[in-house]
What we know:
The chain is α/β, with parallel strands linked by helices. 58% of the residues lie in helices and 9% in strands. The protein folds into two domains: 17-101, no CATH class; 136-329, P-loop containing nucleotide triphosphate hydrolases (Rossmann fold, 3-Layer(aba) Sandwich), CATH 3.40.50.300. Helix 1 (7-38) packs across helix 2 and helix 6 (157-175) runs parallel beside helix 7. The chain starts with 6 loop residues before the first helix and ends with a helix. The relative contact order is 0.11.
Amino acid sequence: xxxxxxxxxxxxxxxxxxxxxxxxxxxxxxxxxxxxxxxxxxxxxxxxxxxxxxxxxxxxxxxxxxxxxxxxxxxxxxxxxxxxxxxxxxxxxxxxxxxxxxxxxxxxxxxxxxxxxxxxxxxxxxxxxxxxxxxxxxxxxxxxxxxxxxxxxxxxxxxxxxxxxxxxxxxxxxxxxxxxxxxxxxxxxxxxxxxxxxxxxxxxxxxxxxxxxxxxxxxxxxxxxxxxxxxxxxxxxxxxxxxxxxxxxxxxxxxxxxxxxxxxxxxxxxxxxxxxxxxxxxxxxxxxxxxxxxxxxxxxxxxxxxxxxxxxxxxxxxxxxxxxxxxxxx
Length: 330
């Protein structure tokens, strides 16, 4: 599926690459300063090599035995380069120490190679669009380190044991994530940690370099419906980005208002990702019975039959935290 991006996205991507090229040049100047400090002779040699083109122009302008003079200049230049390389090796620097180090070797951080958009530019554009989608969710990323199993201890040993197993499974899922990882359906009442662990997975997967889109069901399906019926908005195709990202996380499925269009959109997104073996995490407060009553059998079969069901247990942690904070204030 070919994705098109808005002019603003391309502009942002070009600006990011321009900043990267500036960083590349500054890093080279810093390396050069370090080299000159450790070997003043290296600076003299670089200046001598840099003067070669000027010296060559003077030889041609002056006339006379140009070939012989140019050969002498070439020999002098090669000798200077060899001595400079020897100094660099002796100081323990890499042989390309005085070359600009590009983030992308194919396009040299220009965004284009062989008159085509480079993969690095495409990735930057995707990341920008993913960020725009993720901004639809007001939630901050949460980590595994802030997930406390203590809140489940007063719900009985089974609740704590089950949630510990779920926590470990989610952590392993994030650590071993790949674009062919399986999908998960998080089920359970409100306030049991579904959102927290979804966000923790998102954080780890993003840190591993993958593209993650985290959206709230009511917000995203309202947006998709609005895009569909607003024919003048053609720059951004939300469904394409939801189906193409490495990991899609849909929070609070079942809280969206249902229309025929939204039902079809839910099916198309889930089905497209499953056909291409792209992983999803969907969280819902609904029971199996409620899922079956709300959605048509095509959606139900994919949610229940094609995703690993993770059933969260315990009692509402948000209420426990609220009561705990009230006691602390007293």
